């Protein structure tokens, strides 16, 4: 069975539902509580590549930090944006599940989206 990692926030209902869905399907993923252990800018760039999306698509645009940092107007590079997210991990969409065998990833919104990885 493939190994999986979930970038998880235990206070988020969608994140908890996604983790439970993986477990119900016999998967015990590596759990990264990204608010406690923030990913680096390089890690965020890799997540974006695994999701086949720009870094901007991984942002929670309703967060106060998003507004305070004026990210709606941001026009720098993906690497610059990834470094900002690394410094403000609350901005990262959640949960993100990565299948380690091929680095394929999905955002668990809705949670059932991650079933595509199984």
Give the SSE layout.
Elements: E1 4-8, H1 13-24, E2 30-33, H2 41-51, H3 64-68, H4 78-87, E3 96-99, E4 104-107
Parallel strand pairs: 1-2
Antiparallel strand pairs: 1-3, 3-4
Helix pairs in contact: 2-4
Question: How does this model look, in words?
Answer:
- This protein is α+β, with helices and mostly antiparallel strands and 118 residues long.
- It has a single domain (4-117), classed as Glutaredoxin (3-Layer(aba) Sandwich).
- Helix content is 32%, strand content 14%.
- The protein has four helices and four strands.
- It has helices at 13-24, 41-51, 64-68, 78-87, and strands spanning 4-8, 30-33, 96-99, 104-107.
- Strands 2-1-3-4 form a four-stranded mixed β-sheet, with helices on both faces.
- The longest helix is centred in the N-terminal third of the chain and has 12 residues, at 13-24.
- The mean pLDDT is 96.
Give average pLDDT, whole number: 96
- Measured between the Cα atoms of the first and last residue, the distance is 9 Å
- Major beta sheet, strand line-up: 2-1-3-4
The domain tally reads 1
CATH superfamily, please? Glutaredoxin
Oligomer: single chain
CATH class designation: Alpha Beta
Number of helices: 4
Please name the CATH topology: Glutaredoxin
- Unreliable residue stretches: none
By CATH, the architecture is named 3-Layer(aba) Sandwich
Q: How would you describe the shape?
A: globular
The percent range for helix content is 25-40%
Percentage of residues in strands: 5-15%
Topology order in helix (H) and strand (E) letters: EHEHHHEE
**Structure class:** alpha+beta
Radius of gyration: 14 Å
The major sheet is characterized as: 4 strands, mixed
Q: How many runs of DSSP E, i.e. beta strands?
A: 4
């Amino acid at each position: 069975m493939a190994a999986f990692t979930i970038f998880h926030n235990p206070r988020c209902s969608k994140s908890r539902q996604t983790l439970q869905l993986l477990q119900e399907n016999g998967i015990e993923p590596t759990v990264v509580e990204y608010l406690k252990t923030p990913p680096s800018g390089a890690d965020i760039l890799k997540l974006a590549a695994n999701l086949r999306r720009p870094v901007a698509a991984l942002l929670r645009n309703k967060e106060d930090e998003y507004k305070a940092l004026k990210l709606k107007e941001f026009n720098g590079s993906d690497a610059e944006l990834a470094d900002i997210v690394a410094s403000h991990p609350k901005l990262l969409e959640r949960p993100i599940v990565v299948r380690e065998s091929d680095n394929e990833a999905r955002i668990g919104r809705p949670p059932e989206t991650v079933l595509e990885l199984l």
